[in-house]
Design brief:
5-stranded antiparallel β-sheet; single chain; 33% strand; 166 residues; two-stranded antiparallel ribbon; 7 strands
């Protein structure tokens, strides 16, 4: 799937202050079978596993999902899809690859739902010349040496990437 969101614009991170650098807007509309009523769910706030656990059962029903993750500079990824998805997770329709690599450095190849259904923590990383917050799996799950190697690889990526800080 092609990157449909601002392919010419360089990623410029501007995280929210505090331990969670991004925010979510989640909207779900589900038609209740054999009735004329709709059930809706909406959420605006910090990313958390409980929101994903709440909407996950609806992935198997007729519903419509809009799920946007953003920082202060704009959208990082957006999911906009009709459900059910038949044994898979919703995939972002719009995304900024550098933004996902910046905020989720250790989650390549996973969807937003798959990332947050695992044990994820907000971690403060210091990569010279600056410190920033990103989301990563618990170190004890990956092993200390593996986590160290991932951090070193991410430091190298940050030094090579053309990220414009504001």
């Amino acid at each position: 799937m092609a990157n449909d969101y601002l392919p010419e614009k360089l990623f410029s991170p501007k995280p929210f202050p505090g331990p969670y650098p991004t925010r979510w807007v989640v909207g779900l509309n589900h038609r209740i079978p054999r009735t004329d009523r709709d059930e809706t769910f909406s959420y605006f706030g910090r990313p958390c596993k409980q929101v994903v656990q709440h909407i996950q059962p609806f992935f198997a029903y007729d519903a419509y999902l809009i799920w946007t993750e953003f920082d202060q500079n704009g959208v990082i990824q957006k999911i906009d899809c009709a459900l059910p998805l038949m044994d898979r997770y919703p995939v972002a329709r719009y995304w900024q690859p550098e933004g996902i690599q910046y905020y989720y450095p250790f989650s390549q190849g996973l969807t937003l739902a798959e990332i947050w259904l695992r044990e994820v923590v907000s971690t403060r990383m210091i990569v010279k010349p600056r410190a920033y917050t990103c989301y990563m799996p618990f170190a004890h799950k990956e092993g200390v040496q593996t986590a160290y190697n991932l951090v070193k690889g991410h430091e190298e990526w940050l030094q090579k990437a053309n990220i414009q800080y504001k």
